[in-house]
Amino acid sequence: MPTVTQFTDPMCTWCWGAEPIVRHLRVAYGDRVRFEFVMGGLVADFEAFYDARNDISTPADVIPHWEEAAAVHGMPMDTTVLAEDPPDSTHPANVAVAAARLQDRALAHRYLRRLREAYTTERVNVATREAQLDLAAAVGLDVEAFRTALEDGSARAAFERDQRRLREAGVRSFPTYRLTGPDGTRQAAGFQSFDALSELLTSVAPGLESASPPPVAEFVAAYGPVATQEVAEVYELSRGKAHQTLASLHEAGAVAVDERPDCRFWIAPDGAD
User: Fold this and answer.
1) Which residues are CB-neighbours of 199 under 8 A, at least 6 positions away?
2) What is the mean pLDDT of residues 159-177?
């Protein structure tokens, strides 16, 4: 089975911006493609960190970068956490994903998504143990097993294995994608379009066919909460048209609104599967 690997960090804005692309790939290829996420660790220690290219040395310096990125990728963004409760490092969140993955790969993917959402749209510093445990419970992980993995070193060891994979692959930016299949391996660094990744994927897995997306309300029920940009991406609509479509479904009771500070998501209505 072909595999799409994303080298990533839960607190990376461009990785958050890539969520619509990843969901588009999932919808298009379903269980014919395996998806995995390798935790790279963006910033070990903000006190010792300096990004000369973007002139970033503190979390507050990230705010203009986030705002510029959001203008490109279109995902909702609230920068308050960077000013009011900034992280000392992104590594604890990476280790937390590794702890989740030791339990269940599918739940770990859900957990990674929740970390991204909480950090970028809910003003939650996901580098803290309290936030990590709360989010683990929210996605259905065994919280005590999760806590044990964080405390006994097994999650840290799993994260360090991921970092070795990062170095072996020569990854220098997030996200970076590694696509493997019967006809070889391809790698692409940085923010990528669905078309670009799909072309690379079919180059390593000739004959792989994509499927059409389900009705929008079914997509929201399966993947919610979803951002307007995710619907725009998956259904190849303008953001304005995607919003109109979702608003119409909301009026009809087919989708509900999940309001967050300065951010809006769409979810299945209460009681819907």
Assistant:
1) none
2) 96
pLDDT at residue 273, rounded to an integer? 47
| C-beta separation of 175 from 6 below 8 A | yes
Question: For residue 225, is the peptide bond before it cis, meaning its omega torsion is within 30 degrees of 0?
Answer: yes
Residue linked to tokens 């997030």: 174
Residues 6 or more apart from 19 whose CB is under 8 A from it? Answer: 75, 113, 116, 227, 230
Q: Does position 29 have pLDDT exceeding 60, yes or no?
A: yes
Backbone Cα Rg of the chain: 18
One-letter amino acid at 153 equals: G
Instruction: Tell me the mean pLDDT in the region 235-256.
Output: 97
Q: What is the spatial distance between Cα 100 and Cα 123, in angstroms, rounded to a whole number?
A: 22
Query: Coil, helix or strand for 112?
Result: helix
DSSP string, 44-63: S-GGG--BTTTTB-SGGGHH
First-to-last C-alpha distance (Å) of the chain: 29
> CB of 60 within 8 A of CB of 49?
no
Q: What are phi and psi of 268, to 5 degrees?
A: -70, 145
3-state helix vs strand vs coil in the chain, percent to 5 = 55, 15, 35
For the chain, how many helices (H) and strands (E)?
13, 6
Domains of the chain as residue ranges with CATH = 3-168 (3.40.30.10), 216-267 (1.10.10.10)
